[in-house]
């Protein structure tokens, strides 16, 4: 089919074998009712393709026999795309330049996936959207990005990445090296200009998921051999954040991997900085130091610790920031100062955002002595 419009009428429209190949500028209109395709649609061998999406549109699969064509999305609708775990999906690049959302489901190999504009969307690794009902069928799998000098670019707000963990496996996203083509390609979780807060990570655990303490799970892996790296962090989940899952899972970001580590029953011990006194407005002599331990008393590295002071009255200041990640010895050290108000108060150190562990420091700011003023004497 070349050009034209395919529209759902007054009832949900399911199309089978009526369109087999995608040409340029076809408008898929699911505004009146959801529009879905049960069979594969094929990218035309002669070139890249642009389609316009309006309303709710689901493609069960888009195959790319030459494994090198791009699919560009325009329009204000939501495009739902089921990957196939075998065969060829969109081989080069699927990217959204419209106002709508891009939803990608499943496991298998695809080219690059980029969110350049629009209202965000979803990457649901291992799952599938049923074209007939629109229901989401949950599963576990690996989304492998073959890449073409681009990788995974979550560069607009409103994107969610859904991943699940089970006893035998977990969802993964893998950027392949592809013969060196992705050596310098980045995986972008947060774009400092267009999406500084980052994409949202939604994690779920299957009923059989019962990890061992300290067990590590790889969520995202970059196999490129060059300078390509993982850029940014997921929204509200900085390096070392503790997630409320299986008793506590710590997320860590490296240049080539994003991992989860099971860290249940964390403990804190004060190393230095408690019961200090300082002049108001001056620095305390010692930093606040905490050691992060497991239930066996062993040091735990790479855990984020946040220090919280009262919001009013006598309080602490943190000239280098109020959070840090534990080092290889489990140690966290934060320089601390006194605000200009005198009085005693407590500073709380805790995990974030899942606050399972905390400990307190008592600090005192000494108010300045009142300045004596001379009383004039009249003679």
Tell me the layout of helices and strands.
Layout lengths: L4 E3 L5 E3 L5 E2 L3 E12 L3 E3 L5 E11 L2 E2 L6 E5 L3 E5 L10 E4 L5 E5 L1 E3 L1 E4 L5 E5 L2 E2 L6 E2 L4 E4 L6 E3 L4 E7 L6 E4 L11 E2 L11 E6 L10 E7 L7 E2 L10 E2 L5 E5 L3 E6 L4 E6 L3 E4 L8 E6 L10 E5 L7 E2 L5 E3 L5 E4 L2 E2 L4 E9 L6 E9 L13
Parallel strand pairs: 1-4, 2-4, 3-5, 4-6, 5-7, 6-8, 6-9, 8-10, 9-11, 10-13, 11-14, 12-17, 13-18, 14-19, 17-20, 18-21, 19-22, 20-23, 21-24, 29-37
Antiparallel strand pairs: 15-16, 23-27, 25-26, 26-27, 28-30, 30-34, 31-33, 31-36, 32-35, 36-37
Give your account of this protein's structure.
With 379 residues, this protein is an all-beta fold. It has two domains: 5-262; 267-366, Immunoglobulins (Immunoglobulin-like), CATH 2.60.40.10. It has strands at 5-7, 13-15, 21-22, 26-37, 41-43, 49-59, 62-63, 70-74, 78-82, 93-96, 102-106, 108-110, 112-115, 121-125, 128-129, 136-137, 142-145, 152-154, 159-165, 172-175, 187-188, 200-205, 216-222, 230-231, 242-243, 249-253, 257-262, 267-272, 276-279, 288-293, 304-308, 316-317, 323-325, 331-334, 337-338, 343-351, 358-366. The strands form seven sheets. The chain has a 15-stranded parallel β-sheet that branches. A hairpin with a 6-residue loop joins strand 15 (128-129) and strand 16. It is elongated and about 105 Å long.
């Amino acid at each position: 089919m070349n050009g034209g419009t395919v529209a759902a009428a007054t009832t949900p429209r399911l199309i089978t074998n009526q369109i087999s190949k995608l040409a340029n500028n076809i408008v898929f209109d699911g505004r009146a009712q959801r529009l879905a395709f049960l069979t594969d649609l094929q990218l035309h061998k002669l070139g890249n393709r642009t389609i316009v999406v309006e309303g709710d549109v689901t493609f069960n699969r888009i195959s790319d026999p030459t494994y090198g064509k791009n699919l560009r999305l325009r329009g204000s609708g939501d495009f739902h795309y089921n990957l196939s775990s075998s065969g060829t999906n969109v081989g080069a690049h699927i990217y959204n330049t419209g106002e709508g959302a891009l939803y990608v489901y499943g496991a298998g190999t695809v080219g690059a996936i980029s969110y350049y504009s629009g209202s965000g969307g979803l990457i649901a690794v291992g799952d599938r959207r049923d074209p007939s009902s629109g229901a989401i069928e949950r599963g576990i799998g690996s989304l492998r990005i073959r890449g073409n000098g681009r990788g995974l670019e979550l560069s607009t707000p409103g994107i969610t990445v859904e991943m699940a963990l089970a006893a035998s496996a977990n969802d993964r996203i893998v950027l392949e090296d592809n013969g060196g083509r992705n050596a310098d390609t980045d995986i972008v979780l947060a774009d400092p200009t267009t999406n500084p807060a980052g994409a949202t990570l939604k994690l779920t655990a299957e009923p059989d998921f019962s990890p061992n303490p300290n067990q590590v799970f790889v969520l995202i892996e970059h196999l490129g051999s060059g300078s390509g790296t993982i850029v940014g962090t997921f929204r509200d989940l900085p390096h070392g954040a503790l997630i409320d899952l299986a008793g506590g899972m710590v997320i860590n970001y490296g240049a080539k991997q994003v991992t989860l580590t099971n860290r249940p029953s964390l403990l804190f011990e004060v190393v230095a900085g408690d019961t200090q006194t300082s002049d108001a407005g001056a620095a305390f002599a010692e930093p606040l130091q905490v050691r992060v331990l497991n239930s066996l008393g062993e040091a735990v590295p790479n855990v984020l610790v946040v220090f919280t002071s009262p919001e009013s009255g006598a309080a602490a200041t943190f000239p280098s920031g109020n959070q840090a990640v534990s080092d290889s010895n489990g140690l966290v050290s934060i320089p601390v100062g006194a605000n200009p108000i005198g009085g005693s108060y407590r500073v709380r150190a805790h995990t974030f955002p899942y606050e399972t562990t905390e400990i307190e420091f008592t600090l005192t700011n000494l108010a300045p002595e009142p300045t004596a003023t001379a009383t004039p004497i009249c003679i």
